[in-house]
Amino acid sequence: MNLVPPVLAGDRLALARLLSLLENETPEGLQDLSALYPRSGQAHRVGITGAPGTGKSALVNRLVQELRARADPPQIAILAVDPSSPFSGGAILGDRIRMRDLSGDPGVFIRSMANRGSLGGLARTSSDLAAALDAAGFGIIFIETVGSGQAEVDIAGAAHTVVVVDAPGMGDAIQALKAGILEIADIVVVNKSDLPGAKTTLTALRATLELAPAVRDKDKGSDWTAPLLLTSATSGEGIPELAEAIGGHRRFLEQSGEWEVRERARVDQEVGRLLRERLAERFLKAQPDGLYEAALQKVLAREAAPGVIVEQLIEGADAAN
Amino acid sequence: MAQPKIRVLIAKPGLDGHDRGAKVIARALRDAGMEVIYTGLRQTPEMIAEAALQEDVHIVGLSILSGAHLTLVPRILRLLKQQGQERVRVMLGGIIPDEDRPKLEAMGVAGVFGPGTSTTAIVEAFSRAVEPQELKAAEG
Ligand SMILES: Nc1nc2c(ncn2[C@@H]2O[C@H](COP(=O)(O)OP(=O)(O)OP(=O)(O)O)[C@@H](O)[C@H]2O)c(=O)[nH]1
Ligand SMILES: [Mg+2]
What we know:
The complex is a heterodimer of chains A (321) and B (140). Chain A is α/β, with parallel strands linked by helices and 321 residues long. Chain A contains 13 helices and eight strands.
C-alpha cells in the first residue's frame, strides 16, 4: 500500500504506519520515504538531551504547549527515544507519561521509539522518522534522546539545535557534563529551578562553560554563545525564554549559513554510515563460507591483529575478482 | 531489515489510583521482547485511542480496578473503530466480575484477565494475539 498520498493529506493513521515501516527498515518504508523526501527539509529539528530524570520529557510537554499557544503555531512532532533491554530486546517507553497535557491537540504528534540496541542516544532510524514527519508538514520536531550521563553525540549530528538539560541533585551528572556533553550544546538548561540547589547547579555550570565554552560553533568562528537558562517544567518558569532561545538559534543558523553546514554534516553522517553498513554486508555475503570465521579464529589465536586480517580479507576478495 | 516487534500500549483509564499491577505487566511484556508504551494513570478514552494511533500499536492493554469497565471499555472500542484502528486488539485486566466477561468479549475485547491470572498467562495471550505474518508484513 502506498502511504504517501494519505500522509501528505494529513492522515495520522497512515503517518503512524509509515513510521513503523521505517522503524522496521522495510523496503516499502524506504520507497515511501524516498517519494516524500523532496518535501522534507523545512522542519527545525531540536534535540533534547541530558542525564536521566533531569526533566527532558516534562520540559518538552511545557515547551510544546507554549509554542502551540502562540499565534499561527507550527505543527509539532516529538520523537522520544528510550533504551531497549539488552537482554530481551523489549523496551518500556515511558516518556508519554510526562506529556499528557499535549493529548487532544491535533497539531501535535508524539511517537515513542526504542533505541533497539543502538548506542549514542538515538535509534538507527530516528533520522528517517524525523524526515517523514518533516515531509508530513511538522514545522518543529523535538527529538528526546535516551537519558544518559554520557555525551549523546548522535544528536549533535541529527539535530539543528541541541538543548542540554541538567537539574539539581543529579550527583555525578555534572561530572559527565564536563566530560563532553556541553560541547554539543547550543542551549544549556538547568531545570527544576523550583528545587533547592538549582542556583548552585547553575553557578557550577556557568563556571564550566566559561572555562570550556560550547565549542560546536566556536572553532568555525561563529558568534553563537550557548545561553544558560533556568527553567521549571513544574511551575513554567523560564519556559517562554527557552522557547525564545530555540527560535533565536534557528534564526542564527539561517542568517549565518550554519543551517546548511549542519544539514551537510547530518547528510554526510547518515549516508556515510549507511554506505559502510551496506558495503560490509555485501562484502561478507560475497565471501566463501567459513572464510570470515577462519579470519576471526586467526585473531582469536593471536596469529594476526584485526587490522591485518581485514586487509587480508579485502586483498583476497580483490584477487578473486 | 530489522526484526519487527510487537508494540503494546499499557494504559490505566479512569480514576483509580495505583498502577502497580500495570507496571508489573509492562515489565513482563518487555522481558518477553515487546515494546511497551506506558502512559500512566488517569487516561481518558480519548487519550488512549490517540496514543494507540500515534504509536501504531498492535495491542492496547487496559488495567481497570475501579469497576467502571462496562462504561470505559465500550467507549475506547468505539473510538478505536471510528479512527480506523479496528485491527488493534484490546486486552483487559483488573477486578472484573466473572459475569461481565461474556459481555466484554461480545463487545470485542480479545482477552479478560481477572485478579488470579498469572503474569505468564497474560504474556502468552499477548504474544499469541499477534500473528507472525502480521509482524512480518510489518504492519503494512
Ligand atoms: N520539582 C520539579 N520536578 C520536575 C521538573 N521537571 C521534571 N520534574 C520531575 O522529574 C522527574 C523526571 O522527569 P522526566 O520529564 O520524566 O525526566 P526525563 O529527563 O525525561 O527522564 P528520562 O526520559 O527517564 O531520561 C519526574 O518525576 C518529573 O515530575 C521541575 O521543573 N521541577
Ligand atoms: Mg523522558
